[in-house]
Protein 1
Amino acid sequence: MSDPAHPESQDLADQVDRAVQAAELADMDAGLGPFDRAVNKIVEVLGVAVLATILSLVFLNALGRYTGSFILIWGDEIVISLLPWLGMLGMFLSVRRRQIIRIDFFVEKLPAAPRVAINFMASILAAATFVYLAMASFDLMKFFGNDRTIYLQIRKGWFMSALVIGPILAALAYLLMAWEQVRRRTGR
């Protein structure tokens, strides 16, 4: 809403709108090498496929429920089972693109040497946290992974493996970040 008494507020709002639009439409993988771009594209395609499957099944069940009095009862089973994969694919991609939520305000105010050290330690700590999560999830998967889904009789371990694979990949992405920080710092 523009305020005629304060035209500068409209200018600022327009600048913010343009900046947000530019950020949303920017190539998230700009500046990456072919291998990194390919990995990100594969993860994107897998994420879109999982999301499309989930949305299709939910839509078909809603349509069937309200128009034909039928449901794909096994569809709900697939939707619930695919949600961990959707979350882990998104998490892995956000780590690789350095879009994971973090607070940089104070770190960015520091001189280069402490900033690099803090970022390095943060990457190592994040990797260790994800390794711990993968280990805990693996224990959970060992305990419940042989259980089967009710309707399709698929082992739950197939779906629960997302809780192991996702954190391992995220830990590797953080370790790669730490390695890149050291490499940039040493000039190698």
Note: The mean pLDDT is 89.
Protein 2
Amino acid sequence: MDLPLDSVNCTYCGQCTVVCPVGALKETDAIERVWEALNDKSKRVVVQVAPAIRASIGEEFGLEPGTLVTGKLASALKELGFDDVFDTNFAADLTIMEEGTEFLTRVKNAFTGNEATLPIITSCSPGWIKFIEHAFPEELDHLSTCKSPHTMLGALVKSYYAQKTKTDPKNMFVVSIMPCTAKKYEIVRPEMENNGLRNVDAVLTTRELARMIKEAGIDFVNLEDSKFDNPLGLSSGAADIFGVTGGVMEAALRTVYEIVTGRELPFEKLHVTPIVGFDQIKVAEIPIQNPVEEYKFLDGVTIKIAVTSGLSGAHILLEEVAKGESPYHFIEVMGCPGGCISGGGQPRPTTPEIRQKRLQAIYKEDEGKELRKSHENEYIIKIYKEFLKKPNSHKAHDLLHTHYTKRGKFNQYLAQ
């Protein structure tokens, strides 16, 4: 329409960069800025890695799609000179505590006669967030107020971790390794800062990190495995599955169901089978029977959930919400088809076969962990005890939650 890209309803999902047959479309490069930070001795440079990266970056070094390279990835980041190598998965576990509590609060209000906005919809995908801001601005109250996991972690690095290490937060530089190009836009949103500091300073896609590793002459394939640093590096298997469609919902259900009933989610290997896979819209029903005393009002209630990835499916579900016809209590939306494993910053190509191998790798990572529920992460328990007090506390809301912008089809200045 001959208008600047930032003035129309582009979601910055980056799918155009994945499918462009000649490579003419690419993400805005942040490599030089990150090298500058790494070479600045006054900066403590912290890096974090999204769950989908460990199942895809190996492709950039000739490994079979779906090869898990978690340990090599941590080692490569240490070789590049990052001061602290954390895992975004820690904040994914934190997201479950915050979003799960938010969901239960809304459900409790709805079922006890108080005002509540349902369904609640996940807020981890910034491409999806920008879509709803443009296409369904009147439905923003349905979104969880949680920031995405990597901005949560950035906020904690510049508060909790800065205090622990006695570092001036102004000298902390946070880099996120993401499968997503929309994260580059997300970190410059005015909402994504605390105390005048951006939560995250730079985002590198999977492809950009691979280029940095190659520039540094690191033999990625033959690296020894290492672990992420703590206290912001330990995560559960529930956090790993944030990288695939249906994963955020399943992770939330593992915790929420157990809080409500006192029992483990009754699915084989904890996988909510109806929402696994690449169907455009997936639905499931979770019956609640014999809940704990606090949630007796849910006895006999069936919680209805829906999951979609790709904005066509999101449009279908939001049309139902807008008309007041949605039967669901909880909806997960991811902007990219299949979820983060096929994000706009991932290795090309992302064919259905490659996507399936990445999905299988993510579930393998989850199933291989002893710890598979977010609420059992010892460092999550510790950070609430030492710093955040409890999920949805005032401190947690200040650092980990946000608000959204009614944009409409075009940005406001075009209408002036």
Note: The radius of gyration is 20 Å.
Protein 3
Amino acid sequence: MLRVLGHGHAACDGVSRREVIRVGGLGLFGGLNLPRLLHARASDSVRPPGTAKSVVLINLFGGPPHMDMFDLKPKAPANVRGEMRPTATAVTGLPICDLMPGIATLMDKATLIRTYSHKYNSHNPYNVLTGYDGGVDAENYFAKRSDHPSMGSICQHLDMGPRDVPRYVLMPAFPGYGQSLRRAGPYGGYLGSQYDPLFTVCDPKWERKSKGDYDPVTAKGEPLLPSLGELPAVTADRLDRRRSLLAQFDDGLRKLDRSHAVDGMSHFQQQVFGLLTSPKTRAAFDLSAEPKSVRDRYGDNLWGNSTLVARKLIEAGSTFVTVNWESKNSGHWDLHGNTFGMLRGHLPLLDKMVTALVTDLEQRGLLDQTLVVMMGEMGRTPRINAKSGRDHWPQCGFSLLFGGGMRRGCLIGRTDAQAGYPTDRPVSAGDMVATIYQLLGVDSRMTVDDLAGRPVGISHGGEPVFEAIA
């Protein structure tokens, strides 16, 4: 079981954080991960057509409290039901928390799974992104070469999507950014680091000084393209703050062009260089061209801006985009204390960005081919603790899905009187990724070889939730 260690951490993993942000995250000239991104070749197998061409996954790091958001129990005892209040939605008889009025109007377009249930009690997106829930912290907390590959990595392995935009992107920084560690989940694992995502970087600012881990303070900023690797030791604090990182990226391009350094790159490094400098990629990350009204609709903060960039990447053709809600200064969903105060800070931001994303995709004719998934790695305990918080509870959580071939206005699963356990239709981590693969036209029973050459199922025994698929 994960230990809860003291205070002063953004989450309860007991790992110290560094304040410095390394901006050379891409490592373009350091031979790290992304230069081998386009090494993947098309699979010889023929995939069945999928209803979804793209996925946007909003990962609420830490474990969002399902019973305070999408499975309220107003008749439960006070130390279970909490302080959140239900509101009616576009689906009769399906109330949700009244701090999400925008999402409430969209529930007739959504599938709500109330019974996401597994056994991996840990703070990383490993089960969410891979479907594997058999891990333990001693072996599976930190990313390593022998990890199972993520869904986005499998998509790249199958050569899905166009080649003139990043096909697999994770924003605003790699999971573990706030603690300066690499959490397991988003990587290529035993398939190889050439299937890792493009991780953006960020330099968040906060509205005010946080009073602790459970004092909700909004992170300001936006996801940024990594530096060109010619500045691998430069930190965000040393960059010229009078100009955006995007503008400094342009300066680096001009210097490279004058030095003819591109000519000396390997074939795949040149492909990656072209990928990052393509007009589609640059346009997707350029939020300066977006009207203020659009920025405000998404919420002009780190999470809203990341979601807006996600929409732009989907329009450009990206296949799998993840927004990971995790930062310092209470930028997390690991609500061991002040759960209801944290939710009053977080939920309005979440409501705006999800409502804007789903609405924009539908208005642009993209929702039917884009699967939007919002979830976390676990739920929270039914009983409220002495700090007005809820603790870890992988036994039950939720997943909210829009578009991409999901059934509209659909509710999957029921829980007991305290939202502690599923009473019918538990959905495992493997079932969730199998469902996503099914919608993408990927055979969820497909296997890939691990480091020992053994075939491993990409859904780890999970089956698609067919009753939720239109």
Note: Confidence is low (pLDDT under 50) at residues 1-10, 14-46, 228-243, 264-268.
